[in-house]
Amino acid sequence: MERLPTSPDERPEETGGSAVAGGPGTAWDESLREWAFAQSPCFLAVFDADLRLVRANAGMERTLSRTEAEMRGRRLSDIAPDPVSDETERKMRAVLETGEPQYVDDFVHPTGTSAEHGRTTSLTPLRDEDGRVRAVCLAAHDRTAAEGGPPQMLVPEAAAAPAPSQAGAREHTTTMTLQRSLLPHSLPPQAALVEVASRYLPSGTEAGVGGDWFDVIPLSGARVALVVGDVVGHGIRAAATMGRLRTAVRTLADVDLPPDELLTHLDDLIIHLYADDADLDGSGEAAGGIGTTCLYVVYDPVTRHCTVARAGHPPPAVVSPEGSVYLLDVPAGPPLGLGGLPFETVDVELPEGSMLALYTDGLLQTRDRDVDEALDSMFAALARPASTLETVCDRVLTAMLTHRPDDDVALLVARTRALHSDKVVVLDLSSDPSVVAHARRHATDQLTAWGLEEASFVTELLVSELVTNAIRYGQPPIQLRLIHEDTTLICEVSDASNTAPHMRRARIFDEGGRGLLLVAQLAQRWGTRHAPIGKTIWAEQSLIGF
Predict the structure, then answer these.
(1) What tens digit of pLDDT does each residue of 506-534 get?
(2) 3-class DSSP assignment, residue 260
(3) N or C, fewer C-beta in 10 Å, the chain?
């Protein structure tokens, strides 16, 4: 936003001694508007279409105990983690979608008094010259002062400084901050893979924040993993356990384990965690995450196949491009930490444009309806056409939650996309070393067809090393696959051998041992992906700058 004059010394020269010099539309008028915002008795903040703070006046800075510079570019839920902030963000999205003002009555004083005394917050749309809603203005009003009482500071519960007797509130805020720091702050861009949106709502009960989490993890071969999990219990222990499990899932996903094997390793991990910390905490919650549930989904945009496994978690909902909604039939599997029981995977083909909804049981287990009624409400909300997945998330939460949830709620919604044959090229190769030159020519010809000639040199080297490695150490059949995914070029070489290569440092007079080192230096990422028969060695290049 362009800086405006903020003091009388910066205004245009006055004429005629007028208190307000200059005609309408002058810089002096702009100064008055700026002063009105900065010095308003209300507490004002402006959030853009992504719900990130753009402006905050002095009152809002005092309220949230942060300067405008510290808050700029952050969401309200990050500035003041609290259920009230989540509800406010939900209503801000409603303002952006409908263009109608919304109101929040749940702001409180630092002393803990409620909104019953006439305090409210309004959320109003800010429109451009064409009438389109571009931002939302949050204005916190204190009607107590207007009625003659002393003005009170309005803050979300998490931003209020707790009194010494509010140890529970302080612990709740600490847990909430820990939980949000462990959840992904932004989901990775998967332009050619899936479109994603997410929501997390903490419990509104005295039990406090739980251990629900979600994640979106890029995998090799342009695939993507979608994860939702639920740790038993509430409080700091549940949030900390959630962070450990989320890190473990990312580590296991990085080695490209199939969903059932990943859950088996996660099951073993929880058993080890329990053995290290077998006691119960003060609230009686089981240590180590025993009973945690998890849903792990891998989507491949090349084959449009979705591979799913779950450990005691609700199955995902699928919305077809035509609008029909159903639950994916996936064997439940036991909760994590029980040990010795197998997990099963289901592999289904999804049409391009299908929508997947992953959620925790807090979304369905509400006090005013049974599970079947809750599923019907969720299906109806998912089936309604929407321009964005953000709107879908808001509609689902609005339809399912008539009050603050009794348990944490995590919701992850994804719409599938596909990589078509013009972006994927496959070449079958024999075990003859002479085919290496043919593979290089094939790769450079394809890059020319894609308009990526500048990437040819590095790609030739990668293809040459990977194909040579497969011929020398692998088993036929051998296959080369090139994938052009947005700003990434992927080279994959598959063979029937299950022996994984490992990178080593070649000595000065060694004739070999430098191939994988060269691949690691040239590629942005590389690795090995095992299949039921054989393996695939892959290398990714970034095309940014080409």
Answers:
(1) 555 444 556 778 888 888 889 899 888 89
(2) helix
(3) N
